[in-house]
Amino acid sequence: MKILISAVGTTDPISYNHDSALLHIARNYRPDKIVLVYSQEMMVKQDLINKVLLSIEGYNPIIEIDSTTLNNDEVHLFDKMYEVMGLIIQKYTNNDDEIILNLSSGTPQIKSALFALNRINDYNTQAIQVATPKNGANREYKDLTDSEIEALIVENQDNSLDFVDRSIKDKSEKFTQALVKRHLRSLIASFDYQAAEAIINRKEYNKLLSKKKIAYIREKLYDFSRVFKNQSILSDILSFPLDDSQKKALNYYLMIDVLKEREHIADVLIKAKSLAEFVIEETIKKDHEGLILFDGNLPKLNPDFPDCEVILDDIDKKMKKSRGIEDTEERIFSVQSTLNLLSYLNILEFYNYDSQLQTAINGILSLNGERNKVAHGLSEIDTRLLSRKKLKQLSENLRLLLVDCLGIDASYFNYYDKQNEELIKMLE
Question: How many helices (H) and strands (E) does the chain have?
């Protein structure tokens, strides 16, 4: 449905034998519904406006008078009109309807408010202006004689020491709040939680929303920011029915996924391998207790584990083959070697783990060359090798590890998307 929202101005519906703005827009755009917003002063025009609108040949729109009547002493206040007209537009806005705004009827403050609302808020709107028939001001200026000018000055009642000051300082609080909210929505939608947190924590925005809402959003953004500052586990994840390893892995994966969306590719590459190693290490520790021991923080094969020698031979053989080393009995991989993702993959192959799992790890390892360049060589990332498709596949491989190895339910993976949706809705 096409809906025209229009204030009713002093020149509506007809002026100087021509359509005024409201009638002219209705005649040209033929909206299915016309929503009229009256001030107290303009209420006397209701019957006239309806009759003239319905006089357009072949056109029979729904005409609705909005329940809001603009107070005469407020129609000249920009911020008040911005607030009131914004609420009216919101009332008639949904995903399916097209909203037309009349920018040429009403007080200058109403027109300015509608102009700003069309530009700032994320409504499906188009704003229409209508020129006067003479393409100039509705009222022509008539030159005055010297005596007429003198009389004008003398008769001006404000030209006295005790004149009443009618000026009103416009603070534009609602307008400013709308701008801030829009900026916050944009930051949250792009997962820039630290920037959003810095803005919403300013004292001047304490009244941006209700105390309850502002406190909730601040708490959420603080929690999200801690993840990226300190690698802290999200408060919500701490309450999920998961064990410690599952919580750590899920938190780390979600952090990687956000970094991917923000195109922090270097961080994604470095952290993806770390997560994969953690998940596979936890899996091997659970399924083959005692196979891995730690020298400080360094994981190594336990020489006392029954399968240790056979696994060592297998890993050593594969490592020599990959490096093109032949004709040597001396091991290049031993119990002193630190385990990594590749050797973990070798262990999974030895124990005949699911081939899909092995494929996922190989997919992660395929990006290891670029990862090492970034992590150790301080090299520039070759974006030709790291398309969005490859990064998406990397994310899917990590998801598979979390589901297959740790038993984490896939419903957790869209956590930040759900949170963003909630926060953005609160900021509308």
Answer: 17, 9
Q: Is the CB of residue 15 less than 8 Å from the CB of residue 46?
A: no
Exposure b/e, 314-324, CB count within 10 A at least 16 = b: bbbebbbeeee
**What are the tokens at 241?**
């029915």
Q: How many C-beta neighbours within 10 Å does residue 397 have? A: 21
**CATH number for the domain running over 2-128:** 3.40.50.10770
pLDDT for residue 257:
95
Q: What is the pLDDT at residue 106? A: 93
Domain ranges, ordered by start, for the chain:
2-128, 171-242+414-428, 256-407
R_g of the chain, CA atoms, integer Å: 34
Q: What pLDDT, on a 0 to 100 scale, did the predictor assign at position 233?
A: 96
Burial of 50: CB neighbours in 10 Å, binned 0-12, 13-18, 19+: middle
The dihedrals phi and psi of 296, each to the nearest 5 degrees, come to: 70, -115
The stretch 408-425 carries a mean pLDDT of 96
DSSP line for 77-130: -HHHHHHHHHHHHHHH--SS-EEEEESSSS-HHHHHHHHHHHHHS--SEEEE--
The pLDDT of residue 263:
86
What is the distance, to the nearest Å, from the Cα of residue 42 to the centroid of all Cα atoms in its chain? 41
* N residues, the chain: 428
- What are the residues facing 293 on neighbouring strands? 300
Note the pLDDT of residue 140: 55
Side-chain half-sphere CA neighbours of 311 within 13 A: 26
pLDDT above 80: residue 280 = yes
Omega into 306 within 30° of 0, i.e. cis? no
